[in-house]
Amino acid sequence: MPRMLDVSEDVRAEIGDEEADRLLAGDNAPGSYDCTSCRTPGDTEQERTSTVLFVGEETAVLAFAHAKCIPSQVVKVAEDQLQGAVRSITGSDPNAAAAAAADAAPDQAVLGITSGLVLIDGEVHPALVVEPTAPIARPGSNGENGDEFLPLLIEQGFHPVTDMDKMPDALPGWSVLIAMGQLHAVLQPGTGGGSPVAWWQAHQPLQVTEGWRTAVNKTQTVLVYAAPVGSIGQQPREDLLRDALDKAAAGGVLVAAAMPLAGTSS
User: Fold this and answer.
1) Region (Disordered): which ranges (predicted)?
2) What 3-state class would DSSP assign to 50?
């Protein structure tokens, strides 16, 4: 029976027309599946479903997701991470991480990122908090102007936060990539209107809590907060994280933006 599958041009180019056509015809596609984004059940015969291809240096894994959660796309991962991706698909990987530091790209600053939930006007929202591990200099400078992390983000469209009880404004062109129930990257617009590129990318996909996934599935939006080094710190509990965010906002050292899930409309 034909399946309600979305196969992007990028995925088709990787797997070939013959395999793509077999999937669409239902020959090699499952009926039911666990969504690689929200990890809840899906049915290719009943609802639009995205094919998501995870590609390593030598191997690839084809997974499925609700089309409303994530679009059909190719996600490149390091070969040594692909086994972890396979374990995540089967649900047998118990490892979880609340925060990690990663390079956004070669020669860019190391950023730490933490996932958490924030309460705004009585509603729970999924959030990411970004804090560098050292002061950030403007590219091409020698750091003579001090830490320019916040000015650089404001130039990109982030807005200063003075009140944590107000929703951040949306930032067009930016998005958060969640796949296989894990956080993969924060994406920014490519130069010249090209494909989005990673502003921050996990060295290894980060597991988020079930509560965080539930919140993001409801809102389809992630609130991304950012502060200079030393402003937030690694907080062991969400109430302490909120206290640190409130203090950073009161001190004028917090910016934020609301971002959709990668591939969804803002």
Assistant:
1) 24-46
2) strand
**Residue 265: inside a domain:** no
Amino acid at 164: M
Query: Does a structural domain hold residue 209?
Result: yes
| 153 DSSP assignment | H
Please list the pLDDT of the chain residue by residue as tens digits (266 residues). 667 889 988 888 888 888 888 888 887 777 888 777 666 788 888 888 988 887 776 667 788 888 887 788 887 766 555 555 454 444 433 222 222 222 323 333 467 888 999 999 999 999 999 998 788 877 666 656 678 899 999 999 999 999 999 999 999 989 998 877 788 889 888 777 667 788 887 767 788 888 998 999 899 999 999 999 889 887 778 889 999 999 999 999 999 999 998 843 33
Q: How many domains does the chain have?
A: 2
CB 75 within 8 A of CB 218: no
Domain annotation covers residue 246: yes
Q: Which domain holds residue 221?
A: 99-260
